TrEMBL record:
Subcellular location: Cytoplasm
GO molecular function: ATP binding; heat shock protein binding; unfolded protein binding; zinc ion binding
UniProt keyword list: Chaperone, Cytoplasm, DNA replication, Metal-binding, Repeat, Stress response, Zinc, Zinc-finger
Domain J span(s) in chain numbering: 5-70
One GO CC term, this protein: cytoplasm
Function recorded in the entry: Participates actively in the response to hyperosmotic and heat shock by preventing the aggregation of stress-denatured proteins and by disaggregating proteins, also in an autonomous, DnaK-independent fashion. Unfolded proteins bind initially to DnaJ; upon interaction with the DnaJ-bound protein, DnaK hydrolyzes its bound ATP, resulting in the formation of a stable complex. GrpE releases ADP from DnaK; ATP binding to DnaK triggers the release of the substrate protein, thus completing the reaction cycle.
ZnF (CR-type) ranges: 142-220
Gene3D superfamilies from the UniProt entry: DnaJ domain, Heat shock protein DnaJ, cysteine-rich domain, Urease metallochaperone UreE, N-terminal domain
Protein name (record): Chaperone protein DnaJ
Chain positions recorded as Zn(2+) 1 binding sites: 155, 158, 208, 211
Amino acid sequence: MAKRDYYEILGVSKGASADEIKKGYRTKAKELHPDRNADNPNAEAMFKEANEAYEVLKDAEKKAAYDRYGHAAFEGGMGGGRQGGGFGGGNGDFSSAFSDVFDDLFGDFMGGQRGGGGRTRASRGSDLRYNLRVTLEEAFAGSQKTINVPTSVNCDTCTGTGADGGAEPATCPTCSGMGKVRAQQGFFTVERTCPTCSGIGQIIKNPCKACGGAGRTEKERSLSVNIPAGVETGTRIRLAGEGEAGMRGGPTGDLYIFIEVAEHEIFERDGQSLFCRVPVSMTSAALGGDIEVPTIDGGRSRVKIPGGSQSGRQMRLRGKGMPGLRGGGAGDMFIEMAVETPVNLTSKQKELLREFEKLSEDNNPQSSSFFSSVKSFWETMKG
């Protein structure tokens, strides 16, 4: 039976690029793989046929010969036969072809890089988190804080190489520096992390005694952190390169400062707004007057209380709240009145209040309205 055209087998045109040929083969390999076609007795033969086509077309020299002479390029007299020299292997080496596509499909998941360089020999250090608690006053004005962070730093003895005397690590003999090894399992070529070097691609023959070959040691570092004005609970500050040192000279991770603003005994915060609940005497609330209230910057402001004010009434002090973290002006401060009922009255005070109550039947509009509604409700229920 005449052999089918290799381009036709892969479903690509004769002028297809290398990427298009690889994509065509990858599609066919997925479609025709015997594991997916257990009920198709021809699947394995078609799968090998696609492999043979790809083995030829992926190679520039073999492809050029095929384009010129067709299948005859790989038969006797045109290159040394199927098993001989020349272009060889018209029947194709399945493991070679499929391994190439396997790398393309799964290389990223295996954690390595294809080609001569292999895996990265040094790994980046971990990022660190530090929870920092600040006062509301510090969040308002901004501050400079010094923190002590336990972390890993480059070993001074081996300068981060992990080798005794600072010597360079040697290439791993098991994986030749690739950091991974391949094993043939039936139709598949499976890659695994090298068991000798744990995927690093290098081994240390004489580990540093100070760090045990890790290239880093544990140490507490003192850092100065700038807290910008306007921070809130949950604000994150990134200090680049202040995290954990990398393994064997790898880049350092980052340090993330997470801010928590402590509760205040006077002010309550909501975004850029501040709330201050101020107790006001019953007399001041009834007659009106002035009160002095604190502000978050340590100053004082006088607030006028209108006569007849009730508990819960709010008055606004513009621009006396918290500053914006990224500019845009400050928020407002709200004074909330809490009318205070006097306690521990003397006999004279009680007598005066009773007298006052007799004279103030028409001075309590809320009470009059409420009890009028209650009376109407009861009459309706009786009806």
